[in-house]
Records
---
Amino acid sequence: MIKHPLSLYFAVDFVYLQGYARMDSKALFFQKGIFKWFQFIQVIFIIRGLFMAGLTVYLLQKYGIDGYGDMLIYKQLAGWAFSIFVIGMFFYINVPVRNFFAKQQNQLQDNNNLALQQSNATVE
């Protein structure tokens, strides 16, 4: 689950719906600096599931079956909090993706400048 995070495949499908190729997106998202964020989101999904199960057990012990309505409120609030956090993480992944593209662009410019300098040196 950690080596193939579900959140990565959600993101690949999301960018596919925006018109980008799945294979290109998948290759991009498996880059070292980007992939760790998808793993982190996967860990948050796991923690969310464990927390919600623990919350249900705790609330059942505290309120019993008669307090089911109160339990739903607490569980809904906890679900919203985790959802907001996960959505924020998906938005944050845009930062390492932009940094990756900026780094690639700088390397490309450096390679072009080096090739230009070498061609100027051979002409002289």
---
Amino acid sequence: MRQGDYMITGTQLRMARAAVRLGVRDIAKLANVSPATVTRLEGGAPANSATIQALKTAYEDKGILFIGDSWVRARLPEDRKNLSDDLREIYEKIDTLVNQRLKSERLKNKQKEDVSGV
């Protein structure tokens, strides 16, 4: 399931739904799609871009970020001033790791493109 420059996988959709603690019917209603569609997509079935965008938007509205073509995580708090020093440090480490992973994935994708001549 293509979205932008990467794929959103059925596994990512299941992880996102688990992260926001919603049932299939709940996320289907928020995305204005059928529960059967959510179930099919979570199982890896192909989908049109409008359906993927609707689900992605519904999850993003609930604070989920889709990262690359294998990661999902909850959005970090915008205001980190009110966090304890320990939590702030943890969030900063998470950001660093995610950014390193994204950079690595981009480099791998570029190398694949260079090899295939695309």
---
Amino acid sequence: MSQNTAGPSSVAAESRAGVYRFISNPLIVSTSDGRQFYGTLVATDRDRNLILSEATERLPISFDSRRQERFRYVGMIVVPGKHIVRVDVESRLVDSKERQIQTITSSDVI
């Protein structure tokens, strides 16, 4: 049976390094109350909070009595890590001009 020699601090460092590679990339952050935030990742911290710039909030239909999605510009926002349920990284392939979405788990966000 093999033993894992990596301690908690090295695992956390690897997770942070994984998230830092998405700095300056557009993200779609889904929260526990059903909202989504579309914006560019600026920073993160040890509490798994994400700071997005040029962010837009999408309110789900249940938040709006008009029964349609609503968007509002929020600018720079801190999304608390304890409320993040999903993070999608959006990137565009330059040569094929296709949209590609990659999901990272909230445990990757440290």
